[in-house]
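Weekly structure sync, notes
Attendees: PL (lead), two postdocs, one rotation student
Agenda item 3: pending single-chain targets
PL asked that the sequence for the first pending target be pasted directly into the notes so everyone works from the same version. It is reproduced below exactly as submitted, 413 residues in total.
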Amino acid sequence: MNAHRFGYEVIASSLHDPVAVSSLTAPVRTLLDGLGGVTGLEPSSPGPHLFVVATGGTERRLLDAIAQRRVTHPAEPTILVAHRAHNSLPAALETLAAIQQTGGRGRIVSLTDRVDADRAALDEAVGDLEAIAAMRAARLGVVGGPSSWLVASCPDPGAVRRRWGPEVVAVEPTRMIELTRTPVTPTGVLAERFTQVADPVRSTVDRRSVDDAMGVRSALLDVLDTEEIDAVTVRCFDLLGDPGTSGCLALASLNDDGIVAGCEGDVPSALAMLWVRHLLAQPAWMANPAALDAERNELVLAHCTVAPSMVESFGLDTHFESGMGVGISGQFAEQPVTLIRLGGTDLDACWIAEGDIVATGDDADLCRTQVTVALSSGNVDDLLTRPLGNHLVLAAGHHEGRLRRWWRLAIAE
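Predicted structure, written out during the meeting:
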């Protein structure tokens, strides 16, 4: 097992003395080594790979080294690290321009001599490559297909693979339904995790209903294992007919355990959740925009499932539309958040906005978990004039800048 996090190469002109180059790049190498970098690896080595532009006059050498890397890592964008001396930045600019002219992707990390800022920029660059690799290695299971009402959220699996990386795996729900009726794994301990923590004042369902709902989790874990998939989105409304419970509790539990699990067979939303998981290392909440106020630039989001770790408290209620199974009535803290929606025929469109949760709700006419978000960037009017689809994905914290930088590196034309 490799102990390093990533590899890097130092590229210098032959006109420069190797000892002088070593001294010149020592501060850069110290930063990279401190983040888990290792130099001297083969171009085909696993993990991200960075190129340190030590001096000017290195453009051809850089392109040759990058070409070697692309033999085994064709989808990995190029990260060039430039410092403030010996024409490092001019060489990086010329090299990246050449890469982009031939359809390649990349970014320059231009160091500033502010150590903390430089370390953060390098750490982000490595993290971006790690997320790209993780997305391209992922298998996303779609159990039962998209719900019938998702007429704009059914991207071609080939487009998902080409644009975002994950392989989309169609999964027949038959075995999952059978296992939900008679779960192989006892659900009692899992159910206890929810019933012990849930607010009894806001909980309306009995323990048997919770046990039945957690049977879906056991069945989904079997699907994940059998199909060798890493994330899942489920045509969950079908479960209300057979075996007669909801998927809300199972999906919430999986998301809390680090397994991305989306609702209604919505692939774009599951992709956004997977993106948040791999890039930001946190769960995300998929929800319906229930109401928009263009004058206040606010929107109300609601859904019947949410990862418990994302909320301050929760109650266990029925699933809203059906009155069956178990839904989660979560109470979010007032906090900064980022909203995401992916879409377009080729999944090449993205709406991102930052805001703050300013209120939670308990409207009996909406799904159980409800929040009002006041946007500080972006415009809710965009959702009325140029929607990419129904669901939005919410991540805790303000991350628009990070997400957009990754988007430009990995996805944008």
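Discussion points:
- The mean pLDDT is 92.
- The radius of gyration is 24 Å.
Action: rotation student to compare against the earlier draft before next sync.
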